[in-house]
Amino acid sequence: MPSYNIRFKRAYDAPDSADGQRVLADRLWPRGLAKVKAHIDFWAKDVTPSTPLRKWFHDHPNEFSEFRSRFLEELSVLEAEHNTMLTELRARLKEGSVTLLTAAHRLEDDEAHTHLHVLRDFLESH
């Protein structure tokens, strides 16, 4: 199984040299963030929770294990379909450090309950 150097940050945080490639892992562009100032190398919106799943989790924030299971299933379908964004993200990970970015506030509140952790675990186990 591959082991990648994956970090997490909020999209609003300033970039730094340790970020490596900055990959936005949100389906929606962060509100109020100018694309010119974002310093985002790749927007991997296809490899994020689907809109119905994102809305479901918003309504059921205490059911992370169910969210995780559903999101892993979505990622497995993308892999089976040879999704181009998933392929591109894997290629970038092989090149070196990648910082996955999100606008979610939960990154600051409770890191273990974000889609970024599920995505990282999927990438490292497949």
Automatic annotation (TrEMBL):
Superkingdom of the organism of origin: Bacteria
Pfam families, alphabetized: DUF488-N3i (PF22752)
The protein, known as: MarR family transcriptional regulator
Species per Swiss-Prot/TrEMBL record: Pandoraea oxalativorans
